[in-house]
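FAQ: What does a ligand-bound record look like?

Like this one, built around S-adenosyl-L-homocysteine:
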Amino acid sequence: MVSSSPNDTTNRKFRRQRTRLVDTLRDRGIQDERVLEAIGAVPRHEFVDPALRDRAYADEALPIGRNQTISQPFTVAYQTALLDVRPNDRVLEVGTGSGYQAAVLCELGARVFSVERHEALLQRSRQLLDRLGYSVRTQHGDGSKGWRAFAPYDGIVVTAAAPDLPEALLRQLRDPDGHPGGRLVLPVGGPDGQTMTRITRTGPGPHDYEREEFHTFRFVPLVSDEAADEG
Ligand code: SAH
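The answer part, i.e. the structure of the complex:
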């Protein structure tokens, strides 16, 4: 006879909660079924502090230390849907944080690159992503400069509030030469709220970009090296 271990029971509980979270996101307007499936596959409880596991599948942001947060699932789903990720796309994430968004991108079949400026956060998420079998290349540093070595990207997602458009990121978007042009999805604005913005590269020239604006969100700030140096 097969009896279930406490671990199985816990995993079943989390799976049920995850299914409910996906239903909630659908009710809140997320329509991209591939994104919903990815959210339904990533064990978010692994990415939050053990003391907060019971809240891992509520649709809310949670603290991950160093004054940072794991984004709200709705926000992750919203940004991921705007990125329009196809399998094998090269996607750069700015702000690894807990590693959760990176894992969602892996579930969509993307080749994922992620930059984080807090070394301690990066070490933790690195270990976790490895343990869960998510293959993500990471780098410690200022992601507002992008990651030139692996450019161009089909998608770049910034998971912190950018005061304006980081030029370096625009330049690292793939130009639409036989492929769809690269998409940059980022919240633009000050501390009181940011407009979710999508920039799509439409050609090789310096002005070949299209800009679309969506809902308002509130993110932790993107801290560039220059800003950090000033204080
Ligand atoms: N994507 C994360 C959300 C993390 S919150 C997740 O799924 O959990 C935003 C993260 O961006 C924080 O970890 C913060 O340290 C980081 N960050 C802020 N400015 C940055 C910069 N210039 N370069 C890289 N990371 C940055």
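Follow-up question: can I read anything off the structure? Yes, for example: The beta strands are 62-65, 68-70, 90-94, 111-116, 136-140, 155-158, 183-188, 194-201, 209-217.
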